[in-house]
Amino acid sequence: MIPALPFKDRDTISAVQEKNFSRMMDLCFERHPFYRDRFKAMGLSRGDIRSLEDIHLLPLVSKKDYAAIPSAFTLETDGLEEEATIQWDVMHTTGTSGGRPTPFVSTTYDFYNTLTANQRALEIRRVKGSDIVANLCPMTLHPYGAYHRTIAACNVLKIPVVSPLPGRPSDHFHWSANLDEVVDTIARTKASILWGVTSYVRRILIRAEEVDADFSAVRLAFVTGEAVSEEMRRDLTERMRRIGQPVSSVNVSYAATEMQVGTVECCPGSGYHNPAPDHFYFEIVDPKSHEPLPAGQRGLSVLTHLDRRGTVLLRYSMGDFAALTYEQCPHCGSWTDRFVGMPSRADDLVKVKGMLINPDVITDLLLADGKVGEFQIIIDRENADDRLSSDRMRLLLDLKPDADPEAIVETVRVATGVRPIVEEVERAQIFDPDRTLKAKRFKDLR
Ligand SMILES: [Zn+2]
After folding, report:
1. From the CA of 134, how far away is ligand 1's center (Å)?
2. Is residue 201 located within the same domain as residue 310?
3. CA 328 – ligand 1 centroid, Å
4. What is the pLDDT of residues 255-301, one digit of tens each?
5. Least packed by Cβ within 10 Å: which of 159, 201, 264, 368?
6. Residue 230's domain spans which residues?
């Protein structure tokens, strides 16, 4: 392990990446069931891959390939270092693509590496020894990274963490905390960092303001799991500054189960720093040809593990559009690679009444004046039983008393070309944080 690797110069980072990639290739050619077979079928031998320059010769794998046979992506570790032969835990993807979550196996070797990656991520996020973290990730049926690694990250930094356990995964789980209990836990423990899924953290802030909870220690929100527009960031920041520290800020991460850590910001808008360039090699590739694209160009984000012994993925498509930079960060001085601009799903645009609409634009409009609490955008048909009936856009809104629904209708109509139907509804009808992990902001029911 190289301490503070993200802050070393580019040559040092590249050298350790090459060294780890070479070892990872040795292991995959010999001990990785999926790649061993695939390379053989392709006629690819170990000698063909001389350095990271040759990485484009490896096939791109999709979430679908991995989910179809996850056990084939786990290394055979007999005879390797002892840490690599012990299974530490199995986390699961929280993917929204439907179907069952995919298991992601970590050996003890991987868990130790995960601690390093998380320590560096918190260093980049400028966490202090005096911080107290509220882990707002819910209890779920399948163990997953965000809940467990948040605790591990605090352990490695030797700072207190409280996990109030929101969520009701099963009739056999008796310790669920409802929204008010979570708000109370944050106030009672004087937590300074709120760490969770964006929509849930936002709901906590809305509720805390309503009940006048003591959030005076709150200074940071670490949000993940959902794209965060600048409007969403502003909305969250203003809410925090009203009830927490006046200098509160929102720190967004672009994370994946397949990393067990996130790429993180050092300050708002800095881009998402790779906290462990010795563990993760990112590429941006052309979505059709899969050829690597130059720095700064937006394309498909692809992850290669450089130093794992459990589940190992090479050139794994993360399913997002993003751009990378290798320039030194002007804010923190690190040389690690950064994603710039919020990575987004490839399929964001929808057609409504013949108009091409970006739901994110509507979200930004709804967040503009702080008068909309929870919200949901629904596209359906005027007559659900008639496939030929006209499309319509409904906005389910939880509004403050001084909000003007007619003005919202008009703003959205002007921006999208489609006149929405506004329906005022109960907050819990839109998003009940006791029942689901994330708020579903957009539903296409056609
Ligand atoms: Zn930075």
Report:
1. 24
2. yes
3. 8
4. 999 999 999 999 999 999 999 999 999 999 998 899 999 999 999 99
5. 368
6. 1-343
